[in-house]
Each structure stands twice: as structure tokens, then as C-alpha cells.
Design the sequence.
């Protein structure tokens, strides 16, 4: 379902209901750009990569957000998916006392979106606005101050003194006449400065009068207590409505966060960074702080790319590419038959393929996720036979009953409708305390990250598993003690990066063109000589083997 | 006429012809943003304003460019306007070996464009690309190097040695067989790295063979001299066509530059800065260098806002707003009747109002310009009576002739067609040497600039004319000698900016709330005491009066 600015408010209850009722949520984003151009490194350190991530989140924006909720439907034995596709635009003009925003576009990112038939007019004309919590505070503070007339006085320009004197005289005349013939008086104001001066003058000289800005003039009135209360209520109502509209899409993020439901993405690190950076707060300076912040917001994140590449039971059967479309295709195989997933009632838009629209990609991602998790569950616990048998029995008895009652119930809406049961099986993601099951805990909060020496980015711990490549070496010494020697010893092998663990240094070359053992020996011998100390050097393969 | 990427190449000759034939050109741009948010100063120094201008040109981009050529048509006694409206997109993907570009968007700028019904899909999907001269050099160099196989060798990864050995064996076998059964051999390559290694291997081991990249494989052939020449010609043709497409819109700018025709804009400083920054080169570090660069590109610039605000004969009759639409309205008055302007044959799109589309705004700008210049000419030289009389006589005799010959010529296409003469009069902008007339020289190369203390930005000289405001004071001392004292003496009057002339300092307060004379006295007395030296201090009014 496409959601625009115009119908966002009316769709909010439906979106909240979908989040509240679901078993898990999948999401995807389309971005205005990916990263600064020009980096052609094969490998970077984790800190460097985090800085890139932060820089991207600070600069580029989500232009489309896809959310797909998945809810198990026991009577029909299947999951219902409800995809939502939101256009997001950082509307500034629209929101009174709102911020002006500047963001970056990478030309090629929009060209990529154009290839997927992205509608840029919908984006600008109908995109949903948003405020971060801090921006909301400023918005509320400004509006509250305006509403309470609690505005600091400004200096009066020499040339405006005449204007003000005339205005005061007009008002005073009207007051003196007891405003019988007219219950208000209008004062023309030519610009924002004159308007502000006039408000200020009335506030200070006629504290019992009320003002109301109109087009080209300001209306001065005397309201009785009842009128005053009515006006205050109207203003408060308008304020709350404006606030909801201004906070806009962030409400969806807030509900996703407070639901504590599993959040599924595909290669989701960048998406998560952008969600936080755009809707919540600028990304923190260190990756450690980022991990805490992200985990607090989304305590159960699962990345389908991580599943497909780093979970042995899955990676051994998924041998092709692990991009989303490939995984979608892979999971049509018989071994991934369970569970059945159908689109919820109103979502026929995605019956046909809409790859690279965020809502559809979220739907694909969630579908891939639940199928992979079902497969993993069966691998761990054996096939779902028992449950399926029970289910079959239930279904048989249920359908026997309904057959018995067919005559009576066929046209009777109050009775339970007969439901065809597809016989697929629920995958246990959360236990009764709404905590993740062991099945999920094993794979949650680890996500793919390219161009590092680690197999994944870990939201809960420092990364450990190295990618088993011949360019990576584990040196049992602290970087500070060996840095100078490394620079010399590595010269024959080209540029390299380092990562530090508590006690050791990992050295990884951009590209290796000699046998692994040659480098192991060169580093070990070289450091031995330089430090007059035997230093243990291992290849990534040895390290991982020993690590486990 | 709207010009898109798809039909740009076919429209180029028509655009060039319009520029070559015209009397003057008007232009306008629509931008992705104006400036960093948050500056609420009333006044800034010229250097600060130039830095803002440069920053804006470095960050934001022209998304739509309007060009309107105006050509005097003697037979019909009127100007023909030919407006062109170009969508501009910094296409990166499309151009092979082209740059990746990142630019900024100010959310409110797009919202403004949306209010004018801007089509963002046309912009991304059909916008015309461009390269600056430096980018073109890189493009040409890269393509030439690829075409001449003059690429530096790269290191061969350990794991690709097998792939290369197998490839060499296959090629050698085919060579050994004298390639009788097949005049080429295909080698599969799985990725860009393998492709590059293969090209390199063939280049080094089989220098007399040719390679051709295909989808998924590389074809290796032996071409005879004739085939080789044919292939070279094809590649050269393709290269030239790609180059033209890649350079794209800059060709139009180049023609505008080389035409040396008067270039008219409305409030055009920002537009000129963006044209240079986006299509030619990053803006220089100082405003002085910028002036030289801009003047060299466009030796005769005229700003309609400058005309309306700073030319006394015009500003005394144009008493309302000086935004473009207001000027367009003002110039419908009888005193601005000359000359008549009509849209050229194919431009009916602008018969109806299309304000804020760049092409239409360019048309409006040029129309306002030529009417103001005509009025100015008449003010200087008296009404166009003589010329009009001659013209009338010509017309009468011409129409007598045609009456005589009517029977013969009515359906004869070869004969000169009878043309109705609107009797409006040509405005002399250029003399016979294509140099600007005195009429134009008086107003050219001075353009409006807000938020400075000067009446205009001057492309040829340091600015001199101060805006006559009570906040501005002329102090006959060098800034370096009085800075410390100024900081103290100005404290009662709020924040201020300074500008330096060769021998003096101009001090301007953001807002003045006391009589002018009080500040004149305070500064003069204070500096006298502090420096033990009488320092001349004048208000802006005194300064301008004496300056003239």
C-alpha cells in the first residue's frame, strides 16, 4: 500500500494496528545516495567503515521507506504480509516554525531509482514529512511560545516609530469608544517586522486585548473569558494536529521501536544507520555508541544476508548470489516450502513483481527471512511432523464440524466462517514472555558488512570471526609495539589495514599475490629480529580454526 | 521549447542557429537550493557574500536552464523571441568513464519548484548531462587510453593464475591451428578483474591479436589491416558521439560565451555564479578573480533588476516591486510600448503564462530588458520619431508595390512575401563592430546584490555607490588602525560589518535605532580621543553626495 502525505494521517491507525498485531516486521529503504565517490579500496578498518556509515547517514536521506508486517494466521495456517510503501520528503516550508533542511544527492543513486521507475514527483509533491525528537522539541517550544505570547521584545527601528504611534492611536480610539460599533479593529502591517512590532506593542500597552494575524493586517479584539477559552482550545487543537503532521513519519519508527518485535532487513546496516540518523538523532561518533543506540531501539534485528552467508546450515544450501532477489528465488525451492505467506487483503499491488520499490523489497525480505528461519528450525529440531499432524487432525475435525453445520451456517455471518487451512506451520520467533527464542537469539543482531576483514558486524559484541582469506594475518602483539616495524616488513606486499583486539593485531593486505606462508614467515621472522622476541603470526585460517 | 536528453542532439543545430542569429540572449535558472539555512543577518560584507555565493555554487546545482534569444526582424518591425527550456541532470551512470556526482538539495527549494508545477520526473529521467572542460579532458584521456590499449599492468592475484594459464592455452591452441575453422576465440570472464587481466595478458603475450569485450566473455580476433582500420574508425566515431553526448549542455554555454552577445538576466549574480561553477570550473577563491572570469565569459551582462533599481530614469517611473513578474507587468504600460516582441514560430507553449519555468522567465527577462532599454534610449535621444517616419514611408511604398503586383504574386511562393510591419523600432545594443553602444555600456556589468551596503555588484570595478541608509557610516581611516576602538565605540549600537576602501573604512550596523547624527558624533569624538587625531566620519547620504 502506497502511503502519501495527503492520506498519512488517515492511514496511521491501520499502520499502528499492523505493527501491534504482527509477529515480525521487515523493512527496506531507498536512499538519495550511498557514499562519497572515489573509494576503491578492497578493505577498510571497522572504524573507517563506521565513519563512512556516519558520513552517509549525515548527508544522504531515505526517500522511500518500505515496511512489511507479517502476522501468523492460525485458522488458515499461513502468514499474512502487509506491505506499506512510504515516500519520505523532509518538508520544510510546509511546517510552520519547522527547520530548513539541506541534504545530498548522489546523481547515480537517482539514476538507479529511475531504472526502477521511481516516481520523483510523488516523492517531492506527496512525500511524508518528519521531525526528530529534538526537532519536535524545538517545534513544540516555538509554538508554545507563540501561543502564550511569550516572545522577547525586539528593538524598534527609528523609521517604524511613526507606524507604531499611529497604530497605538487607532487602537486607543477604538478602546475609548468602548468598541460598540465594531468588536474588533484591524491594523495594516506591510511586512513581518511591522507585524512583530505590532504584536509586541499590543502585548505591552494593551495586555487585555487579543491579536490575530490575518493576510496583510492584524486584528485586535477584546475577548471575554468564554471566547478566550474557546480560542485557546481551538489553538491547542490546531497545535496538536500540526504537531502530529510535522512529526509525521517518525511516529511509524517510534511504534516499530516500542513494539520490540523482531526487525528484519536485508544487508541492513546502512538502513538501520539511516533510520536512526534521519528520524532519531545524528549518529554518535563511535561505532560502540552506535551499537548501543541501535540495539536499544531494535533489540532483535535479523539480517537475511547474514543468514544466507554466515549460518552454516543455510550457506551450505544457498550456493548462488545472496542479493535479495536471488534469495527470493532460492527460497521458492521445495526445502523452503514452509511457511505459506500471502499478501493481506488490500495489497494486490505487489501480486506482480515490484522489485526495488521499498515496500516490495520489505515484503521479499520478510518472506525470505521466515522461510530461512523455518528451515533452520527444522534442521535443529527435525521436521515439523508432530505439529503438522496435530494440525491436520484439528483441521479434519474442524471441517467435519462445519460439514455438519453447513446447512445452518452457510449464510449466517455471525457464525465462525469456515476457513481453508493451508497447513503451513508457525515458526517460533518469540516465547510467551515476548523474548526471542533460542532459534532467533542464535542469529540476531549480527549483520553483513562488506569491505572489512570480519564476517559480520555484531551489534552486541566486538567482531571476532575473520573472513578466511589469504590476505589476513593474526599477529600476537599490540599494534603500538609493532607499527613501525610493520610498515617496513609489509612493503613487499602492498598496502594493508590493521585491526586491534585486546592483545593482538590483525594485519590484512588489500591484495595478496604471494603464497600465504611467505608472508607468515616474513612477519614472524622480521618481528622476531626487530623486537628480539618471538611473535606468533597466524593466517586467518589457522586463527579461525583455533578461535573455535 | 522544452529540450530533453533524448532530443538534445537533434535540437543542437537549431539552438546554435538561434544564438548565432540573435541580437541578445536572456537566461534564467532554477536551482536545487539557495544557501545554507540560518543566516538572518540584514547585512554582510562583500567578501562574506562572495564566500556564500561560492559555497552555493559549489553545493547546489541548476536543475533547469532557460535561454531565450531575441532577434530583430526588420521586415516585420519587431523582435522574435525563441525560448528554450532545458532540464539539466548531472548524469553519472550514463556516461562511461564519467564522474560520479554528489550535490545538495535544500528541501524548501524543491518545495518552491513543486509550487510552480516543476516536473521532477522529467528532471531525473530526461535531464541533459554535462561535463566541465576539465571533466571533458579526463573523459577524453580515459577513452583514448582505453582505445589505444595503453593501460598500466596490474598485479595478478595468486588465485587467478590458473584462469590466466588456461586462457593463454586456449588462445595459443587457436593460434596454432591457424584459426581456420573459426576466425575468433571466446574466453569467458566472470568479473571485471578477470576481464582486465585477460586484456593485459593478450596485450603482452599476443600483441598482434585484437580483443573485444562482450557480455560475459572476451572475443579474441586477428584483424587484417583493413579490418583494423574499419574497427578504428568505428571506435573513433562512437567516441566522438559519446563525447558530444557527455559534454552535453555545456555546448550551449560555450556557444553563448563565444557569441559575445549581450547576456541578460534578472537579479543574475547567483545565476552567473552557478553557470560558471557547474559547467566551467569551481568558482575562484576571491571575488576579484570571479569578476575577471565572469567578464571574460560574458563581456556584456545586463541585469534587469539593476536597471529597474539603479538607473534613475527607470527607477523614477518603476515605483512598485522589482521582482520579475512585477517588471513584466510594469512594462505593459504605454511608455514601454516599444518594441513589439513576438514568440518565434514554434513557441506557443509560452503564449499562456508559465512563470517560474526557467525558459519562460528568460523570455520575460529579455522582454523587460529590451523595453527598458528602448525607454532609456528615448530618454537619452528623444523619441524614435525620425526612424519611425522613414519606416512608415518604406512600408507605405512597399505596400503600394505589392498592391500593384497583387494579381501576379498572390500565389507565387518564390516572390518576397508581403509582410505586415508592426512599426516598432530596433534598439541599438551593438554597433557595427559588435561592441556595445554607449546606451548599453552605461548599464552593463553591474548587477543587483542584496544584503550588502552597496547599491550593486560591479563586474568591472570595486563597488562604490553606497545604499543611502541611516545605518551606514564612512570613516576616513584604515580599518587596521581603528578596529579595536570601533569594537568599543559601537557597542551601544549593536552588531556591525565593515568594508575597506583604499584609504577609509565603511561601518554599517545591522539595525539602527537612534538618530544618525548621534552615531556620527559618537564615532568621530570617540576616535578623536582614542587616536588623538581628528577622524572624518560621514553618514552614507553625505558620502554619496560628496562622492558624486
Sequence:
Amino acid at each position: 500500500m502506497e502511503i502519501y502525505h495527503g492520506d498519512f494521517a488517515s492511514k496511521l491507525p491501520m499502520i499502528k494496528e499492523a505493527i501491534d498485531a504482527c509477529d515480525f516486521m521487515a523493512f527496506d529503504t531507498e536512499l538519495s545516495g550511498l557514499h562519497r565517490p572515489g573509494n576503491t579500496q578492497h578493505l577498510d578498518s571497522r572504524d573507517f567503515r563506521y565513519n563512512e556509515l556516519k558520513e552517509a547517514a549525515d548527508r544522504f536521506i531515505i526517500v522511500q521507506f518500505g515496511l512489511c508486517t507479517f502476522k501468523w494466521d492460525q485458522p488458515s495456517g499461513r502468514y499474512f504480509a502487509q506491505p506499506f510503501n512510504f515516500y519520505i520528503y523532509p518538508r520544510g516550508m510546509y511546517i510552520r516554525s519547522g527547520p530548513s533542511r539541506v541534504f545530498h544527492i548522489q546523481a547515480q543513486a537517482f539514476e538507479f531509482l529511475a531504472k526502477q521507475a521511481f516516481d520523483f514527483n510523488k516523492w517531492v509533491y506527496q512525500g511524508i514529512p518528519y521531525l526528530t525528537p529534538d526537532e519536535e522539541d524545538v517545534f513544540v517550544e516555538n509554538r508554545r511560545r507563540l501561543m502564550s505570547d511569550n516572545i522577547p521584545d525586539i528593538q524598534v527601528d527609528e523609521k517604524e516609530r511613526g507606524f507604531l504611534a499611529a497604530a497605538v492611536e487607532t487602537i486607543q480610539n477604538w478602546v475609548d469608544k468602548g468598541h460598540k460599533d465594531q468588536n474588533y479593529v484591524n491594523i495594516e502591517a506591510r511586512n513581518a517586522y511591522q507585524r512583530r512590532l505590532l504584536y509586541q506593542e499590543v502585548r505591552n500597552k494593551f495586555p487585555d486585548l487579543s491579536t490575530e494575524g490575518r493576510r496583510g493586517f492584524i486584528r485586535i479584539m477584546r475577548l471575554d473569558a468564554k471566547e478566550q477559552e474557546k480560542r485557546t482550545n481551538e489553538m491547542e487543537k490546531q497545535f496538536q494536529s500540526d504537531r502530529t503532521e510535522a512529526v509525521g513519519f517518525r511516529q511509524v519508527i517510534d511504534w516499530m521501536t516500542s513494539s520490540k518485535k523482531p526487525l528484519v532487513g536485508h544487508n541492513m546496516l546502512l538502513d538501520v544507520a539511516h533510520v536512526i540518523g534521519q528520524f532519531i538523532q545524528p549518529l554518535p561518533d563511535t561505532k560502540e555508541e552506535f551499537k548501543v543506540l541501535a540495539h536499544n531501539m531494535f533489540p532483535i534485528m535479523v539480517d537475511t544476508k547474514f543468514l544466507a552467508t554466515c549460518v552454516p546450515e543455510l550457506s551450505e544450501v544457498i550456493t548462488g548470489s545472496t542479493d535479495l532477489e536471488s534469495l527470493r528465488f532460492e527460497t521458492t525451492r521445495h526445502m523452503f516450502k514452509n511457511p505459506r505467506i500471502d499478501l493481506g487483503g488490500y495489497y494486490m499491488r505487489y501480486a506482480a513483481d515490484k522489485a526495488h520499490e521499498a515496500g516490495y523489497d520489505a515484503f521479499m525480505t520478510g518472506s525470505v527471512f521466515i522461510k530461512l528461519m523455518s528451515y533452520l528450525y527444522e534442521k535443529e529440531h527435525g521436521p515439523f511432523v508432530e505439529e503438522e499432524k496435530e494440525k491436520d487432525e484439528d483441521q479434519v475435525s474442524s471441517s467435519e464440524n462445519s460439514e455438519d453445520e453447513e446447512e445452518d451456517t452457510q449464510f449466517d455471518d455471525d457464525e465462525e466462517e469456515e476457513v481453508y487451512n493451508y497447513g503451513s506451520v508457525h515458526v517460533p520467533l518469540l516465547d510467551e514472555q515476548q523474548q526471542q527464542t533460542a532459534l532467533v537469539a542464535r542469529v540476531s543482531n549480527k549483520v553483513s558488512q562488506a569491505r572489512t576483514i570480519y564476517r559480520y558486524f555484531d551489534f552486541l559484541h566486538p567482531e571476532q570471526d575473520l573472513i578466511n582469506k589469504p590476505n589476513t594475518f593474526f599477529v600476537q602483539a599490540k599494534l603500538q609495539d609493532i607499527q613501525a616495524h610493520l610498515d617496513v616488513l609489509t612493503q613487499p606486499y602492498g598496502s594493508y589495514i590493521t585491526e586491534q583486539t585486546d592483545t593482538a593485531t590483525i594485519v590484512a593486505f588489500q591484495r595478496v599475490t604471494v603464497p600465504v606462508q611467505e608472508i607468515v614467515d616474513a612477519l614472524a621472522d622480521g618481528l622476531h629480529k626487530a623486537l628480539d622476541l618471538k611473535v606468533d603470526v597466524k593466517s586467518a585460517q589457522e586463527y579461525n580454526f583455533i578461535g573455535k
Notes: Chain A is about 45% helix and 15% strand. Chain A touches chain B through 45 residues (CB under 8 Å). The CA atoms of residues 98 and 138 of chain A lie 8 Å apart.
